[in-house]
């Protein structure tokens, strides 16, 4: 049997694909526009990518910006109507006659960090995402805690952020998940923008807020500090609950390593263990953690040991 896995990272605008062989991280990445509205075009695209390979892979492993309903197997992936509400695993297995593994993108990120990245030397790895949303994934012994669904580690949702920071009252903003007061509403890129608009009445993108923060601008500094104070308690609690000894951070905002260091410095004293080493750290498993994590989960399913570089 081949030891090659065909990996996909499926997003609302693009599908990225790469093969990974013998436990190593995926190689060259190819990109296709997501056939967002057409299920049959979507399945046909996957088939054509398999047909273009020199050798038939042993399995397909997919990272997806959504979750799998653990009771029905159907996807909840609102920004890709072509596959939302469908059982993609069953459809693809039927069409390709290959085993298909599907995991949430934050879960893939966490596994990628545990196997290939900053969590390599740790047993419990809690990967956190600060991107268009706030998410996470939990890994123990290199394996996902919640293999069906993708709900474990999702610390970004829950009615938990403080209502007062310093002298300021901060409202519980309504979240896309239906609750209000979620970390997701104040700590991803849209959350930072929302917070800045609330505090200063100023419309500014998250990157612009961060660069103003770096330049020492007082309003941006207050926004970032408020964001840190809002997320720190919930994150410290999640760290206590999981026993994670490393918290790799990914997503667009985490490319700002000064922000990741500031998160670490704010959160670490609030944890019960208060480790001396950095707890929240930048991700190190590369530019394609979705593909790498999908590959790692696929290799685990096939019984192939991962080979970190
Ligand atoms: Zn929420």
From TrEMBL:
Gene3D superfamilies the record matches: 3.30.420.40
Pfam families associated with the record: ROK
SUPFAM superfamilies: Actin-like ATPase domain
The family this protein is said to belong to: Belongs to the ROK (NagC/XylR) family.
Protein name per UniProt: ROK family protein
């Amino acid at each position: 049997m081949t030891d090659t896995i065909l990996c996909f990272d499926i997003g609302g605008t693009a599908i990225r694909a790469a093969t990974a062989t013998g436990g190593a991280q995926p190689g060259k990445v190819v990109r296709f526009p997501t056939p967002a509205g057409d299920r049959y075009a979507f399945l046909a695209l996957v088939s054509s990518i398999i047909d273009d390979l020199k050798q038939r892979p042993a399995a397909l492993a997919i990272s997806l910006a959504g979750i799998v309903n653990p009771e029905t197997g159907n996807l909840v992936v609102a920004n890709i109507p072509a596959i939302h509400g469908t059982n993609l695993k069953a459809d693809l297995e039927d069409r390709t006659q290959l085993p298909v593994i599907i995991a949430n993108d934050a879960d893939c990120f966490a596994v990628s960090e545990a196997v290939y990245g900053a969590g390599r030397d740790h047993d419990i790895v809690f990967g956190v995402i600060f991107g268009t949303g706030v998410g996470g994934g939990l890994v123990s012994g290199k394996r996902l805690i919640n293999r069906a669904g993708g709900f474990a580690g999702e610390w970004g949702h829950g009615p938990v952020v403080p209502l007062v920071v310093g002298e300021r009252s901060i409202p519980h903003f309504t979240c896309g998940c239906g609750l209000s007061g979620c970390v997701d509403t104040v700590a991803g890129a849209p959350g930072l923008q929302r917070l800045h608009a609330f505090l200063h009445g100023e419309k500014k993108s998250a990157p612009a807020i961060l660069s103003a923060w770096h330049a020492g601008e007082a309003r941006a500094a207050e926004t970032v500090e408020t964001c840190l104070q809002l997320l720190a308690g919930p994150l410290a609690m999640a760290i206590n609950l999981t026993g994670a000894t490393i918290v790799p951070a990914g997503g667009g905002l985490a490319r700002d390593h000064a922000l990741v260091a500031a998160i670490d410095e704010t959160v670490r004293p609030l944890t019960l263990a208060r480790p001396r080493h950095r707890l929240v750290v930048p991700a190190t498993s590369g530019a394609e953690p979705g593909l790498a994590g999908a590959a790692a989960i696929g290799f685990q399913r096939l019984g192939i040991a991962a080979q970190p570089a």
